[in-house]
């Protein structure tokens, strides 16, 4: 771990614990900073705060004192989830105090280079796919970031022989200053998280920070099919690696209906790629380009693409049974994500959808509901989803009580050649504590039904 002299004896406030705040506070303390932690959870219920106190960190728990910044802090490291409308963050902005997320700290302490991946959709799949490619090629990758592993904790142990493949959210990137990945990827950019950012301009600017410090020695991989990203790329200093789904090009990486191409030469037939869907093709092109730029071999990349079935709960292939294919897309907690899933799969779809009622519109799904031959609904939105599907012309609609019932009904209404897809378009909290638990319930139900009917 690099010993960052600029942090030695610096007075730092870590706002919000959870995994990232705890890790940042611990590392800052080791670097010789004077660290104060402020977290809303009461001290008696806060084992992380208790551990930090025993290590010599000043801890303020159970409240956020409005005069906290009167202590003369020189830096704030905040949990990414804390909005910039927070009164302490607002005060820090007024006082001109730098505000970081732990991604900036991870970059400063790391002996290993970074590959950074962001985008509105596809971050996790691209990150995971790239990690597998580099790992099978023995490039010693480490995986970190928004995917669930705190980047600073990974960077703390990284060596110059490693590369840190890092999924980055707009929340994390907004709090960076000098962060500079040797390869930066933006998979795509749509409107999202406006409740946090306040405007689409701030959201876009936060995403684009991934490439702002890059130089001519670095690479920027971006979706050339989006004019906004193409215009941004034209202003970047890095070597540009565009990808496109609109047909073969002689530069960089591209795809048409039959093949993926690298620098104009055929790399792999699309029919041999295990990970399905047009939206996943963006992820495949981005990850493949990054792997090749990092010295990965075409043989290894092809081997991964013909075996990788996806990230769990994100268009995850489960099983092929009696001509039917089952996919778990429980991570689709809004209509936009389910729209991408419906667009991705060919043929007739038996769709399992529903969940927590947030009164959000389903209209984004309308152009794709002609792909749905059967709808199985469940949860609080079951009736509203059924009314919407009937209005879209879906002829067969059934309501299920739970996931087991939903899968049984889906199988009963399906036939060989159909895709049975869980893509709820709703959050899970009406029936399940998380989308992961909901997805696992689907996987278990599929296993029970298919094994019972062999």
UniProtKB/TrEMBL annotation:
Residues 117-291 form the Mur ligase central domain. SUPFAM superfamilies: MurCD N-terminal domain, MurD-like peptide ligases, catalytic domain, MurD-like peptide ligases, peptide-binding domain. Its main location: cytoplasm. It catalyses: UDP-N-acetyl-alpha-D-muramoyl-L-alanine + D-glutamate + ATP = UDP-N-acetyl-alpha-D-muramoyl-L-alanyl-D-glutamate + ADP + phosphate + H(+). Pathway: Cell wall biogenesis; peptidoglycan biosynthesis. GO terms for molecular function: UDP-N-acetylmuramoylalanine-D-glutamate ligase activity. Keywords: ATP-binding, Cell cycle, Cell division, Cell shape, Cell wall biogenesis/degradation, Cytoplasm, Ligase, Nucleotide-binding, Peptidoglycan synthesis. Pfam families: Mur_ligase_C (PF02875), Mur_ligase_M (PF08245), MurD-like_N (PF21799). ATP binds at residues 119-125. Residues 313-426 form the Mur ligase C-terminal domain. It is found in: Cytoplasm. It comes from the Bacteria. Its EC number is 6.3.2.9. Coiled coil: none annotated. Cell wall formation. Catalyzes the addition of glutamate to the nucleotide precursor UDP-N-acetylmuramoyl-L-alanine (UMA). Belongs to the MurCDEF family. This is UDP-N-acetylmuramoylalanine--D-glutamate ligase. It comes from Planococcus shenhongbingii.
